[in-house]
Amino acid sequence: MSVLTGLTKSGSAWKPKFMTNIDQDVCLNCSRFAQICDRDVLNLQPMNKFGEFIDEDDDKIKLQAMTIANPENCADCQACVSIWDKFPTYVPLPA
Ligand code: SF4
User: Which SUPFAM superfamilies match (predicted)?
Assistant: First the structure.
């Protein structure tokens, strides 16, 4: 499989990677990811006590879980990686 590649300013190869998954089993839902991403890729979604996503106006909200709302907006800026690179999955974009 070929992947999208580019060049850095110095001319060396650069392979951009884009966020595609958040492991909900290890995510702390601290919301820092949503705060640092200025491209509206990430969003906090309310969940009930059973771990099911529910509407924002539902009165049974137990916690908020980090989700990828707009993956097409990811620009591989790596700002979220600087916070915690343990649970998101970043993959190169196929060419
Ligand atoms: S790499 Fe940048 S644009 Fe993509 S999700 Fe992380 S902070 Fe947002």
Answer: 4Fe-4S ferredoxins
Alpha carbons 67 and 22: distance in angstroms, whole number:
7
Nearest residue to 18 (alpha-carbon basis) of 86, 64, 82, 68: 68
Alpha-carbon distance 30 to 35, whole Å?
10
Domains of the chain: 23-88 (3.30.70)
Tens digit of pLDDT for each residue in 13-33? Answer: 988 888 888 877 777 777 777
- Ligand 1 proximity of 65 Cβ (cutoff 6 Å): no
The pTM assigned to this predicted structure is 0.73
Q: Two tokens at 28? A: 């702390």
Where the chain has pLDDT below 50, the residues are: none
Q: How far apart, in whole angstroms, are the C-alpha atoms of residue 15 and residue 76?
A: 10
Residue nearest to atom 7 of ligand 1 (CA): 37
